[in-house]
Design goal:
Helix 1 crosses helix 12 and helix 8 packs across helix 9. This protein has a two-stranded antiparallel ribbon with strand order 1-2. The longest helix has 36 residues. By secondary structure, the protein is an all-alpha fold. It contains 17 helices and two strands. The protein is globular, with a radius of gyration of 21 Å. The termini are far apart. A hairpin with a 2-residue loop joins strand 1 and strand 2.
């Protein structure tokens, strides 16, 4: 592809993604809805102005790293440990486990390979709590028990999802291993995460402090990016995935005295201004609804339904129900919450988002050769993210209005 074509496609993706993202945001929904729709319009499904290419693949993958780095910068482990860590961990564990099992079971029952089904299950462990935050902020509910619990659960959700994916990625790249080796692999992945969190913070703080003393504050961003790429490189090399490394790099910089004023705002500017919209628009370009309807038909009595369509319907119901029931049930078991608070928390946990798309994308680009059917499955995952991002704000607002 020529440079002129790449620049033209980037122009179209950013322009339409910005326009539709802003329109959707003003309507009270997540901008990712507009950005994904922009990709569907520009891609092979409609106008065919943007196609799949190696160059856009690599830019999108780079966008994933920046998005995970930015997410890591929002994680404050020390604050989490002081506030509701046990409750949040319990809710995350219940929600993640039930959702993983239900999604994996449905995918296997529909004839997909076990490893593909496992990846689908892992992709739904984490919840897009950003959508819940957006709705609660809009309603002025910023300091309630519901808001604080959702914030803590969102953090522990991310940690569990990254740990599960790191283990699965190592397992797949290793070509499959026995139970003993899997346990050793789990300890290695956990060891890498603990090592980065334990020693990485002190090393990064010294590097940044030295940079501030010997150079300008702008150089802090360069050092932060060096740390991100270094930890991502280490993560990729020890087979826990570069995205895990990028997320961890963000967490070790989150408590830096320069994070709030310098690092986070500037990383957020380049991520939200270019890389993240590009990733979501390109996700829309990848969606192939036509392929879903042309997939192998599943005969149910007198009705014939394409298997990918059935997978979409089954997963969206199973995932939303599992997240709601597990959150409500875990909160009920722990006590301390009113029934209306448990209802709101359950609804806030139902949307899928960034992690679902990131893990699905890696399944297509990195593990696609050993995970058959991931290309069509990715379209299903992206549509589930799209629909849950629309449904959840509506249901959550209704729950507050009915008080």
């Amino acid at each position: 592809m020529s440079v002129a074509n790449i620049l033209f496609e980037l122009l179209l993706m950013l322009l339409l993604g910005k326009i539709l993202g802003d329109i959707v945001k003003r309507m009270g929904f997540s901008p990712l809805i507009g950005q994904i729709v922009a990709g569907i319009i520009l891609g092979p499904m409609a106008l065919r102005l943007v196609g799949l290419s190696w160059e856009l693949d690599e830019l999108s993958n780079l966008g994933v790293l920046f998005m995970m780095f930015l997410m890591g910068l929002s994680v404050d482990f020390e604050k989490l440990m002081r506030e509701s860590v046990y409750k949040a961990s319990f809710i995350s564990l219940c929600g993640g486990l039930l959702t993983f099992l239900s999604a994996m079971t449905i995918t296997v029952l529909l004839g997909f390979e076990l490893n593909t089904a496992i990846l689908v299950g892992i992709s739904f462990i984490s919840t897009s709590t950003a959508i819940g935050f957006m709705v609660l902020n809009e309603l002025g509910d910023n300091y309630s028990k519901v808001y604080k619990t959702i914030m803590a659960v969102g953090t522990t959700d991310d940690i569990f999802a990254m740990l599960a994916f790191a283990l699965f990625n190592s397992y797949m790249i290793g070509g499959g291993i026995d139970v003993k080796s899997a346990f050793v692999l789990f300890l290695c992945a956990l060891g890498f995460i603990i090592f980065v969190l334990w020693f990485g913070r002190s090393i990064s703080e010294r590097l940044i402090s030295w940079t501030v003393k010997s150079s300008s504050e702008i150089s802090v961003i360069t050092v932060a990016l060096i740390i991100m790429f270094m930890v991502a490189y280490l993560g990729e090399n020890i087979k826990v995935a570069a995205v895990t490394g990028a997320f961890l790099a963000g967490t070790i910089l989150a408590r830096s005295p320069f994070s709030y004023k310098i690092i986070t705002p500037k990383i957020e500017a380049i991520s939200e201004g270019f890389f993240i919209p590009l990733f979501f628009v390109y996700t829309g370009v990848r969606i192939n609804i036509d392929q879903m309807f042309k997939s192998t038909p599943l005969n149910l009595y007198a009705v014939s339904i394409p298997i990918d369509v059935f997978l979409f319907l089954g997963l969206i119901m199973a995932v939303m129900a599992s997240k709601y029931v597990s959150t409500f049930g875990a909160a009920l078991l722990m006590g301390g919450y009113r029934r209306d608070e448990m209802h709101k928390m359950g609804l806030a946990m139902t949307p899928m988002g960034e992690y679902t798309l990131v893990i699905g994308l890696i399944g297509v680009t990195t593990l696609g050769a050993i995970l058959p059917g991931m290309e069509s499955v990715y379209s299903v995952l992206a549509l589930i993210v799209l629909f849950t991002s629309i449904l959840t704000p509506i249901m959550l607002k209704k729950a507050y209005e009915s008080q």
